[in-house]
Amino acid sequence: MTTGSLSGVVIVSFFAATMCLTPAITRPTVPFGVRVPPERADATVIRQQRRAYYGRTAVIGACCIALAILLRDRGSWWLSRIILLLELTADFGCYLIARNRIAAVKQAERWYAGHRQVVATDTSWRTDPPRFPARWLIPALTVIALTVLVGALRYPHLPARVTAGGHLVPKSVVSVFAIVAAQLYVTVLWTGLMLIVYRSRPDIEADDAAGSTRRYRRFLAACTRAFLTLLALVDLTLLLAALRNWQVYRPSGIGSALIVLPFAVGLLVLAVVTFRVGQGGSRLPGGRGGYGTAAGVDRDDDRFWKAGLIYVNRDDPALLVGARFGVGWTFNLANPMAWLVIAGIVATPAGLAALAAAVGL
Amino acid sequence: MLLSVEPDGPVPIYQQIRDRIVEAIAGGRQPAGSGLPSTRQLAVDLGVNFHTVNKSYDLLRQEGLLRLSRKSGAVVQRDAGSGPPRPDWAHDWAARLSTLLAEAAAQGLPPEDIVRHCREAIAAFTFPAAGESGPGSVGQP
Predict the structure, then answer these.
(1) CA–CA distance from A196 to each of A119, A143, A199, A303, A331 (Å)?
(2) What is the reported pLDDT for A211?
(3) Do A315 and B49 touch (CB under 8 A)?
């Protein structure tokens, strides 16, 4: 089994598990991206659709994993990507079925009739903001420094043609150190996005604003640490790939596949942490004590969520908001700054490659 | 401080933000000298336009309850412990209160019920003990 085929199986399995389990980590008041009042979070239609989604996505995941394992040594790197695309498309179909059925019942039974709909915030989030755990960046930066050091030491001894991106290319600073650029790009990108998250608004539940703010603080701290751990392990996988390309060692058989092991462990750590904390900390202890004292319920904001996944709200100055389905964050696509950031994320690697080619490195 | 607004409610959002902050100051949850988020931060947190929060803060500044500066941001200027208000302010407030009480009378609420509501509202406020001057007394407008 090659590194590429193993990473294909790992990615297909990872998405199979995460897509299947996402409803379990999603906030109970936004099942399948539909906002519902707290007292409806356990409605019959929601329980039925959740069960049906688990069943359907489990079957899809099992089929795709089996396919990825059976075809692991056939075709090229793109085969596992096609399987992944099929898997995600089918899972998305299951999500849409569940979402549409819940939304239809919500509308027919007028679940929000008579509710006072509010938006709540806890100003202590700004007056006593959480601190970004910068120390957790040290492992990733250490791995990058180590990669640069090994690369600099190996450079004079490398042959005229070196392996880069799976091909033999002429030796140059760019071809040898491209992997360091990839490490830096991933590290800077993730750190930058997490810093934006720290300045974004927390997911606060109107009927338990103080409790949900406390849970969100713990959620953010746990997720950031898990992300930064994943980052260090991604950099480590890139370092192992660099060592192979620089002929420090010659992995063979299963040894070559072990290059992706740090990446797989990082994904597992992230999955375990997100499963434990839930969306916005919704699975953490210290839940609400009852709905009786609520000053209102969270505003029905379904109209701003396209398919329950994409947030577009012109009146909202927020750049990033909490994801609606699963754990994470998503851009407010009505904010021009969001498009600038997305363009920067896409353009940076292309720009670097073009610059390197232009200066003839 | 917990702050909630009703975006689709009948009261303008800037007025709701202003009212919630006044209530928090009166209730002792936001004493004189305590900070509030910047207009941009509060706008992001409530998902409303910057200008909406700006209008609320400006109202509070005009009322002498908030101090806005580039360096320290938005800081509560005074609270119940900051001493008596300006005489002209008390006069204006009495006129507005009269209208509010008239609404209750016009709707047929008996005087004892009006007084009971007033007592309940006052019970939620925090007042300094007699003779005590709060930390906000330094920040009188």
Answers:
(1) 21, 24, 5, 25, 11
(2) 87
(3) yes
Is there a contact between A121 and B35 if contact means CB atoms under 8 Å apart?
Answer: no
Residue of B45, B52, B57 to mutate for A, most A C-beta atoms under 10 A: B45
> Is the Cβ pair A299, B5 closer than 8 Å?
no
* Tokens encoding A302: 């379904």
Distance CA A84, CA A282 (A): 29
- Contact call for B34 and A119, based on CB within 8 A: no
A202: closest chain B residue by CA: B45
* Other CB atoms within 10 A of residue A265 CB: 15
Q: Specify the pLDDT at position A293.
A: 42
DSSP run (H or E) holding A237: helix A209-245
Domain that holds residue B28: 1-126+136-140
Supply the CATH number for residue B113's domain.
1.10.10.10
Structure tokens at B16: 């709701």
User: Would an 8 Å CB–CB cutoff place A299 in contact with chain B?
Assistant: yes
Note the pTM of the prediction, 2 decimals: 0.87
- pLDDT at residue B138 above 50? no
Closest CA to A273 of A216, A345, A223: A223
Contact A127 B37 (CB under 8 A): yes
Q: What is the dihedral of CA A206, A210, A215, A218, to 10 degrees?
A: 140
Report the alpha-carbon distance of residue A177 to residue A175 in Å, rounded: 6
| Complex confidence, ipTM | 0.85
Tell me whether residues A296 and B43 touch, CB distance under 8 A: no
Name the residue among B3, B4, B44 with its Cβ closest to that of A296: B4
Tell how many helices (H) and how many strands (E) occur in chain A.
10, 8
Tell me the two tokens of residue A100.
């549409």
A239 neighbors A143 (Cβ within 8 angstroms): yes
Specify the number of domains making up chain B.
1
Residues of A in contact with B29 (CB under 8 A): none
Out of A121, A210, A296, the one facing B46 most closely (by C-beta) is A121
Mean pLDDT of A150-162: 89
Question: pLDDT tens digits, residue range A96-136?
Answer: 999 999 999 999 999 999 899 999 999 999 999 999 999 99
Of A116, A315, A318, the CB nearest to B6: A116
Q: Which amino acid is at A286?
A: G
Residue A206 DSSP SS3: helix
